[in-house]
Amino acid sequence: MLHAFTYRLPFEGRPRRVRVVVPQKVEAHPPLLVLFDGQNVFDHHRSHAGGWHAHDAVNKLASTIRRPVIVAVDHGGRGRLRELWGELDAFLHFVMRDALPEAERKLGTSFDPAMRVVGGASLGGLASLGAIARHPSFFSGALAMSPSAWFVPSQIYHELQHVRLRAATRVYIDVGERESEAMVREAGRVAGLLAGKLHPEQRMWRPDKRGRHRELDWQRRLPKALRFLFRA
């Protein structure tokens, strides 16, 4: 069975839940997958509209894929919009300087600095793109499912356009073609920008013909995203 534990750390004066799942046969210095909106990452309990079962997806990865430790950080409820974009810097600081060191302390090891991936869907997908744009030396990859690039199209495009990404950075972006026109258009625009900055083996753009803006579709698309991001 996978090993899991939970802890809480103060953020903005209130305890914030962080859940960690450690895969079977964990490496000495394992890769890391940080996921926003932790309420939706695992099972259906406390999820807004169903969980991704990310722990099952990691456990089913082939032996040729490095299995990451998942660190899932809950969103702040009514403060979600603000912390996942308006004040993203403060939230990323909490993740990088508080949540991840505490996970390492509890695990008794350190994460592989060459494979620290940040991810999420919708606003979480936008935040993951913002994370690699603002902290390219810390995060080596982004998993952006249905990123809400339409919300701040000029800003996220500008940030990604001017960032100098790591030589081995990997970025996965998808979108459901049954989502809004603006969602599809701006996600594709960001993917096109990254196509000019990353080699083909470092990027994946995945339009989903039957995809909608919902947890069920993100759960379905997650395994392929993991295979791309964590292949050895």
Describe this structure in words.
The chain is α/β, with parallel strands linked by helices and 232 residues long. The chain has one domain: Rossmann fold. A hairpin with a 2-residue loop joins strand 1 and strand 2. The longest helix is centred in the middle third of the chain and has 20 residues. The mean pLDDT is 95.
Biggest sheet, strands in spatial order?
1-2-4-3-5-6-7-8
Beta-strand portion reads 15-25%
- Helical content, roughly? 25-40%
Q: List low-confidence stretches.
A: none
- Give the CATH level 1 class: Alpha Beta
Q: Mean of the pLDDT scores?
A: 95
Question: What is the CATH architecture annotation?
Answer: 3-Layer(aba) Sandwich
User: What structural category do the secondary elements indicate?
Assistant: alpha/beta
The H-and-E topology, N to C, reads as EEEHEHHEHEHEHEH
Number of beta strands: 8
Q: Rough shape?
A: globular
User: Largest sheet, described in full?
Assistant: 8 strands, mixed
Whole-Å distance between the termini? 23 Å
Number of separate helices: 7
Main traits of this protein?
232 residues; alpha/beta; Rossmann fold; 7 helices; 8 strands; 37% helix; 22% strand; globular
What topology does this entry show?
Elements: E1 3-11, E2 14-22, E3 32-35, H1 54-59, E4 69-73, H2 80-86, H3 88-107, E5 116-121, H4 123-134, E6 141-145, H5 153-162, E7 170-176, H6 181-195, E8 203-208, H7 215-230
Parallel strand pairs: 3-4, 3-5, 5-6, 6-7, 7-8
Antiparallel strand pairs: 1-2, 2-4
Helix pairs in contact: 2-3, 4-5, 5-6
